[in-house]
Design goal:
The complex is a heterodimer of chains A (162) and B (502). Chain A has 162 residues and is mainly α. Chain A is built from seven helices and two strands; from the N terminus they run ααββααααα. Chain A has two domains: 79 residues, no CATH class; 67 residues, no CATH class. Chain B starts with a helix and ends in a 5-residue tail after the last helix. Chain B has 23 helices and two strands. The chains are: A mainly alpha (162), B mainly alpha (502). At the A-B interface, α1, α2, β2, α3 and α4 of A face α8, α9, α19, α20 and α21 of B.
Amino acid sequence: MDCEADAATPTLDRSTLFAGAVVTLLGAYVLWQSLGMQLGTPSRMGPGYYPMLLGGTLILLGALICVLEARRAPEADDTLTERGVPVWRSRVFVPLAMVVFALLLRPAGLVPACVGLVGIASLAAPSLSLRRTMTLIVVTPALIWGIFVFGLGLPLQAVEGL
Amino acid sequence: MSDLVANFALGAEVAFTSSALLYCFLGVCLGMVVGVLPGIGPLPAIAMLLPITFYIDPTDAIIMLAGVYYGGQYGGSIASILLNLPGTPPAAVACLDGYPMARQGRAGVALFITAIASLVGSLFGILLVAIFAPILARFALEFGAAEYFSLILFALIGTAAIGGDSFLRSVAMVAFGLLLGIVGQDITSGQFRFTFGIPGIADGLSLVAVAMGIFGVSEVMASAHRPRQGNSQALRIRDMIPTRDEIRWAGPAMGRGSLFGAVCGILPGAGASMAVFIAYAFEKRISSTPENFGRGAIEGVTAPEAANNATAQTAFIPTLTLGVPGDAVMAVMLGALMIHGINPGPGFISEQPQMFWGLIVSFLIGNFMLVILNIPLVGIWVRLLQIPYSILYPVILALICIGVYSINYAVFDIFLVIAFGVVGYGMKMLGFPPAPLLLGFILSPMLEENFRRALLLSRGDWSTFLTQPISAVFVIASALLLLLPVYTAMRQRRSQDGPVDI
């Protein structure tokens, strides 16, 4: 049993303590915000009453996570244990690619937005292949345009100003 | 009984017209495709189809939209099994054992058995809708605000209790979800809550943005850099035939799953995500080989799949007979009916018998269409396995971006989905499960509304939740669910510390 192992090394799991702290802090923030709204009475609740209860619940849950769970570490997810440069490629390029899509969609049109997204998102892949990226850059905008503009009638220009 | 036959005959008249058959076929095909594609589920597809339904007959419209919904349930598990990427949120459970089965080279069997489980679950659900919708409508009419509050509370805590490894983390995510559900304008006072002055979230957070961010984007962020072996195996029809043992395990599991699914669909607010988790947890609990779960146990695939599809059918009961949608997709469906001037409620079946029974018969037709579409086309789905993830994920990201944009034509929603992707990634790192969050988010407005109304009616007397018998049952059940894991955790702790009083 892992109970014995825990008893031998009574260390607190740092990520669990952090998780509990995040939940508690979130609850504290919600509680503080809700107290700034009108609370009302149980029979005639104001907008702040329900958030106030939720804030209190979150604080309690965060504290319970710290107290009850910090000694037995849960099976760590790959997301947490993985280290190194490749992890950061996904972390940075995936959201960045979507940001580029969002910024290009209206001013430049659907095709440039898709090309930008695919070009940047491909940088996160385990191996860089020019041929694969080029194929994707051609196929993805065509697919998206076919489904959403041609098929579903989304009012978007393929390339703005064309 | 003769009533039922007459009703089905009436329904058949409606559902077998050429236009109804056409829209049913279009609906299930589209549902299948969006169910398979990770990142766009039935919800955005239905939302996008809404404007189109202005131009067609309301019965045909609802038949098509419903087809997208249950067609999506068939397709949802395919991506789960082949790619470990759920096509729809409830299909996440199909990953647990479906993906291991695929990696063992049993993808064909898994896909075949899920198609059959889907059909079994659906047929069971349809039967229940036809028999019990009128009866349950009358029973559910007795539900007041206190009952609804307690029922929703029970649904939330129940999902958390079975949703993940850590009960406390699941409950914390329910609470976080409830919090996200508050964002926007308070209905009673009109005051904006937690909107930070951002106009894009003044009407509340977009459900699709939250769901796609937490389930879709965070997954891509976690795995885009990982090399994935394209587990390509030639699949013949022979590979799809399950062994006698597999049938023996899968058959009863389908029956049990259908039952859980049907019940969860009927309870407003329980929904498919809850049904699949309950069905999975139950199979694991009663199995003589629970250690096989998570490593390709066939019961772990079939029971949730049957549950999922039974839910998709019975979810129409509360939506149509009460006007209370059980999940987000049903809420959109309700909106579609209201656009056509139809207000579902207690009188719906008696006032619109052609529409109600036509819909029921179209469910039957659509489900048989889906099985026929599913099994011969399985080769196409399996071929998806040969595509490496590094080709798929940019396309998935593009589909997520354009899908979330297409709902409100709002670029802001793309930024919202990115933000929730980052939140979901952080949750993954800290061991917080995403499904309870989504349920809390969807049910939060209903929970608050009934909470306030119940206490308004009782003039602030909290005992109202315990003096109403139906409500009391749900409150006590919720309390037991809450206290049990805390008690076990404390006992474990005490046994570690030795005899120390806390």
